[in-house]
Amino acid sequence: MAQFKLKQYMFTFEGGGWNTVWAKTKAGAIKAANLEYKDSDSLNPRVESFHVATEAGLRSAMSLSINQITIKLKTEIMKKIESFNKPTIVQLRSSIDKALDQVAKEYGITISAGNCSFSGNEANFKLKLNTIGEGGTVITRESQNWDF
């Protein structure tokens, strides 16, 4: 009779996330994971995702997890700004630029945030908005001065 060796199986959860379980077969891995998470409302292993874990797969999943944690930590750290300084303005500007891009697309214009002045509890960004002409050309005051 053939002896099965324990193997590490990787799987994902409905709604995101991943984990591993040790078992001799894929069916055994599914059974073990379902037993381990049977009392959880949010951790439901996806049966179709079970596969033998590889070093590359584990490394990739760990890297993604670390990146997600880093993003979450940055988001949580920046949620409440107590005062404005260079680092908070730099991080805010990135979020502001993304939001302005969405508004610009919605209205078919260009929007760019210019210089920012700040001190303590106040920050002021200069905004420049332009319409877009035929052929996708941005219409600026300067470009209109050159039109004959």
Task: Give a concise summary.
This protein is α+β, with helices and mostly antiparallel strands. 43% of the residues lie in helices and 26% in strands.
- Tally of DSSP helical segments: 4
End-to-end separation in angstroms reads 91 Å
Described by its quaternary structure, the protein is: single chain
Number of domains: 2
Spans of at least 5 consecutive residues whose pLDDT stays below 50 are: none
Basic shape = elongated
Helix content: 40-55%
The major pleated sheet works out as:
3 strands, antiparallel
**Strand-residue proportion:** 25-35%
> Count of DSSP E strands?
6
Radius of gyration: 26 Å
Strand arrangement, largest sheet?
Answer: 2-1-3
Order of helices and strands: EEHEHHEEEH
Integer average pLDDT: 84
- Category from helices, strands and their pairing: alpha+beta
Describe the structure.
The model has no long low-confidence stretch (mean pLDDT 84). The protein folds into two domains: 7-76, no CATH class; 81-146, no CATH class. A hairpin with a 5-residue loop joins strand 1 (7-12) and strand 2. Helix content is 43%, strand content 26%. The protein is α+β, with helices and mostly antiparallel strands. Strands 2-1-3 form a three-stranded antiparallel β-sheet, with helices on one face. A three-stranded antiparallel β-sheet has the order 4-5-6. The chain has four helices and six strands. The protein has helices at 26-36, 55-78, 86-107, 141-146, and strands at 7-12, 18-23, 51-52, 109-119, 122-132, 138-139.
